[in-house]
Design brief:
The complex is a heterodimer of chains A (431) and B (308). In chain A, 66% of the residues lie in helices and 6% in strands. Chain A has helices spanning 2-16, 19-48, 81-87, 120-141, 146-152, 171-205, 208-213, 218-254, 257-265, 270-283, 288-314, 323-347, 352-357, 364-371, 382-410, 420-428; strands spanning 50-56, 71-75, 95-99, 111-113, 160-161, 168-169. The longest helix of chain A has 37 residues, at 218-254. The two termini of chain A are 22 Å apart. Chain B has 2 domains: 2-221, P-loop containing nucleotide triphosphate hydrolases (Rossmann fold, 3-Layer(aba) Sandwich); 225-286, Alpha-Beta Plaits (2-Layer Sandwich). Classes of the chains: A mainly alpha (431), B alpha/beta (308).
């Protein structure tokens, strides 16, 4: 047992001490954060001081514009359009809006002059003001009481609640969380699985395997590597968790709900900003202990399930590394297929495809993590969760056993190309 | 006393018999040469002795007890033919790691690393990565990591490959030292001149079977063909050399290689030269080299296999 601990220690330290570990661990979440924060900041800044000069040739709009979200409108009557167009910037305006004489039936000819590209937020502010004034004028022409129309107008929001407990749920938040955790799982399984495979290949090709096997059992060598790399992954999660907490504490400093909203309207990252907003709303409503617990369980379970098989494939490698490409296909294919099912499962977490895929160990780490945010036991009954976990544990015990049998033969087999067919024979061969 | 006793060891693969019923003993403290052409089954045999492979049948006794691959690995040091080290790992760390896997505690291991590094004068290598070292340097590192846990049984598969004559000698001296201190050494090679120089006892295997085994002296005696060389001061004429005691195998400059005929003795040869008044400068028995025995025996088994 002491030997396997030594192996775990070496695998762990040799990876954590590499510079690339630090870079990946710190830069990945920072890059993510930057993708959300920077557009929001930019959008926030550009809108904060927008002043629009309005020249109203029709005379029907003057004084009726509302200032919307940091966009201020000033009607100017004492300056001709031509000079204003030239000097608006000197007077502190972002641009000039021209309202021509209009036909109330077919209003057209509105123009906005500016050197800078108008943001979507600004466009929204201008058109909504124009529309509301025109609507009001049409109502007057047709003898409709605006106060009555305002009273008739409906603007409802639906609160989605869990039927069992009174917590507020949000399909959008569980959607995003399901996506995020499912795809994190997808990348982690591929990344760490390949990492295990590379480690095994390196040991075999550099011939250290034979020296090691004269000191430790092949199974110890394989499990030591797998557990050591798992520890690297867990450390990475821990660091990301801490960064996430720090970031979420720092986030309100950068982003008030208002800037989030403008970021929303700023377009490019609208969905993400919206998601963030809903996210922060529901973050408090999710059973975090269960979620994190399940995430770690399915990461470890899925990792053990796949990485032992990756180790087995690595042990089949020869000096020619290109042979290994086609051999990994039987492993990458189920992971990729699971990621497709994951998309479906997030959208419809109770469909029979989602339910079964979350129980079969090939896909359960991804698909179950996509379903869990939708609610336990509301969407995912306890029996499904339990069954899925038991099957996954059984799955990785079986896959580790199979991999161990392939590994111990493959790791010492040199010189000839080993086919998968041959390797499957080793599984059932006598010791 | 025998450190290692191997009895009826067998390992069959689907296509061929890698080790087919081999038995031998190795005395405590001796240097045992394992010889055989490529593909004879040497590596498979060694892998069974090191616990890497399980034999299909037969038994391995270490110190009179059944060899247990989970607990007896500490007693064995194995340097495989193809060297293997972690390329990106610093030398000192690597040796320490391999030593700890053999059950040494960190303190003892570090003390012994220092001893060997001083001995080979390689203290500057401690923090170098393995792939910064030359092949010969890596060889030394590999050797140290093999002997650091002071194994009772040291198995060296082609230990001199890739070493220059100076380092070869250095390593040879260390092998003798270890042997003197009681380490039993199995030495696998196909460099015959080294075998004669180093080994007390050899075993020749081919096609998974033992062809012969015995001490180097004994084997050379067993395979001698009654050849002698005699040096002469003055080359005699053909008439002077006519006798039924021997036949001439070859004539060289001031010497003859002779084959003694059955029923004659070495003294008959000498008497003949003395009677013919040919001045003799020296007289020696020609024993076959291990190399000659090796080639003749391997060819013999090949022929047997071909006719069978």
């Amino acid at each position: 047992m002491n030997k396997i601990y030594l192996i775990i220690q070496r695998e762990f330290l040799s990876r954590v001490r590499k510079r690339s570990f630090l870079i990946v661990t710190v830069l990945v979440p920072l890059a993510f954060a930057a993708m959300i924060i920077v557009p929001a900041l930019l959008a926030g800044n550009s809108n904060s001081s927008t002043k629009v000069a309005v020249v109203d040739n029709s005379g029907k709009f003057t004084g009726q514009f509302k200032d919307i979200k940091h966009t201020y409108f000033k009607f100017i009557a004492d300056q001709p359009l031509d000079s204003l167009k030239r000097h608006y910037a000197d007077q502190g305006y972002s641009g000039v809006l021209l309202i021509p004489e209009i036909d109330l039936e077919r209003p057209s000819g509105f123009e906005y002059y500016s050197e800078a590209q108008a943001s979507i937020g600004l466009e929204h502010a201008i058109t909504s003001n124009l529309n509301s004034v025109i609507e009001k004028m049409r109502m007057e022409v047709n003898g409709i009481d605006k106060a009555k129309v305002d009273a008739i107008r409906a603007d409802v929001t639906v609160e989605f609640k869990d039927s069992k407990d009174e917590k507020k749920g949000s399909s959008a938040a569980s959607f995003v969380l399901g996506y995020a955790s499912g795809f994190t799982m997808y990348f982690m399984l591929l990344l760490f699985g390949t990492s295990v495979m590379r480690g095994v290949m390196e040991e075999k090709v550099s011939r250290i395997a034979e020296v090691m096997i004269s000191s430790v059992r092949p199974f110890q060598l394989m499990m030591g590597k797998i557990i050591g790399i798992a520890a690297v992954g867990l450390l990475q999660f821990l660091i990301w968790g801490i960064l996430l907490i720090l970031l979420s504490m720092a986030l309100p400093m950068f982003m008030s709900p208002e800037t989030l909203q403008t970021a929303n309207q700023a377009g490019s990252n609208a969905e993400m900003a919206e998601a963030m907003q809903k996210f922060s709303f529901v973050l408090g409503k999710i059973n975090w202990a269960l979620f994190i617990g399940c995430f770690l369980f399915y990461f470890l379970g899925g990792y053990l399930f796949y990485s032992s098989l990756y180790a087995a494939v690595g042990s089949l490698a020869n000096e020619d590394a290109s042979d290994i490409q086609q051999m990994t296909l039987p492993l990458t294919a189920p992971i990729i297929i699971s990621s497709i099912i994951l998309v479906k499962a997030v959208a419809d977490p109770t469909s029979s495809l989602a339910v079964w895929a979350s129980i079969i160990p090939f896909s359960s780490p991804l698909v179950m993590m996509a379903r869990i945010p939708a609610g336990v036991p509301g969407t995912v009954p306890y029996w499904q969760l339990l069954l899925s976990m038991v099957v996954l544990i059984g799955g990785f015990i079986a896959s580790t056993w199979i991999a161990g049998r392939i590994y111990r033969t493959g790791i010492l087999m040199y010189g000839k190309k080993i086919t998968l067919k041959e390797a499957t024979k080793w599984i059932f061969s006598k010791s | 006393m025998n450190l290692l006793e191997v009895q009826h060891l067998k390992k069959y693969y689907a296509s061929h018999k890698a080790v087919d019923d081999i038995s031998f003993n190795i005395a405590q403290g001796s240097i045992f040469g394992l010889l055989g052409p490529n593909g004879a089954g040497k590596t498979t045999l060694l892998r069974m002795i090191t616990g890497i492979f399980y034999p299909d049948s037969g038994s391995i006794l270490l110190n009179g007890k059944h060899f247990d691959p989970t607990n007896d690995l500490q007693a064995i040091g194995y340097m495989p033919e193809e060297r293997g080290l972690y390329k990106k790992m610093p030398v000192g760390e690597q040796i320490l790691y391999l030593a700890q896997l053999k059950g040494l505690d960190k303190k003892t291991a570090n003390a012994r690393i220092k001893y060997w590094f001083d001995k080979f004068d390689i203290n500057t290598w401690t923090n170098k990565k393995v792939d910064e070292l030359s092949k010969g340097m890596q060889q030394k590192v590999q050797f140290i990591s093999t002997v650091l846990h002071e194994p009772k049984l040291l198995i060296l598969d082609e230990p001199f490959s890739g070493l220059d004559p100076i380092n070869s000698n250095l390593l040879k001296q260390e092998i003798f030292n270890l042997s003197k201190n009681g380490t039993t050494i199995i030495f696998s090679t196909h460099r015959m001149e080294q075998v004669e120089e180093i080994c007390d006892h050899i075993m020749l295997v081919n096609k998974g079977q033992k062809i012969l085994d015995g001490s180097v002296k004994q084997i050379r005696q067993d395979f001698k063909q009654g050849l002698f060389r005699i040096g002469v001061g003055v080359m005699p004429n053909a008439a002077q050399m006519a006798t039924w005691h021997f036949t001439i195998v070859s004539i060289d400059d001031h010497s003859f290689t002779l084959k003694l005929n059955p029923d004659s003795t070495t003294n008959d040869i000498l008497l003949h030269f003395i009677r013919q008044e040919i001045p003799v400068t020296y007289f020696e028995e020609l024993l076959p080299s291990i190399n000659e025995v090796f080639i003749s025996q391997v060819q013999l088994t090949e022929n047997v296999a071909a006719t069978a």
